[in-house]
Amino acid sequence: MRRASFTDMNCSVAQSLEIVGEWWTLLIVRDALFGVTRFDEFSTRLGIARNVLTQRLDTLVEHGVMTKEPYQDNPVRYDYRLTDKGRDLWTVVTALRQWGDKWTTDDGAPVESTHTCGDTMTVEPHCSVCGEHVELADLRVRPGPGARENNPLSGLHR
Asked: Whose CB has fewer CB within 10 Å in the chain, the N or C terminal residue?
């Protein structure tokens, strides 16, 4: 079954899903964030079919989320490394993991993040201007500079 394309939707979430919305993709990014770079290591860790892994890695490279760098000549083999664009997905993967820790596990978090201070930490939203902690009730939406007439937020008031 072919999924719908969001390419014509004037929404940054929809456009992001065009790149990372397939379920294996964020698992590949997760492993890359933890230092995995080699095709065979992704394949083994994830148990993903090689053709599917190839397609997902090609998409990530095509969209500048990862680079493909040869590390061996005969046969040619590659490291897949996150770019700045790919490393920026850390907060997305972390938020999804924290959501899963809260809502999908019975025995607690399978993985904990520790800060260099040594304590277990979570990522929480704070306003980039005033520094206050942000709750959903604190948010308002308005059309941004890239909004078009078909923007899904047009007419929304929260």
From this structure: N
Interatomic CA distance for residues 108 and 115, integer angstroms: 19
Q: Give me the helix-helix angle, 39-46 and 50-62, nearest 10°.
A: 120
Cα dihedral: 130, 92, 84, 39 (round 10): 170
Q: Report the candidate in 67, 59, 80 with the shortest Cα–Cα distance to residue 16.
A: 59
* 81: CATH: 1.10.10.10
Q: pLDDT-derived band of residue 34, with 50, 70 and 90 as boundaries?
A: very high
Q: Give the pair of three-digit tokens for residue 76.
A: 């040619």
Range of the domain at 57: 12-138
pLDDT digits (tens, 9 = 90+) for 67-79: 999 999 999 999 9
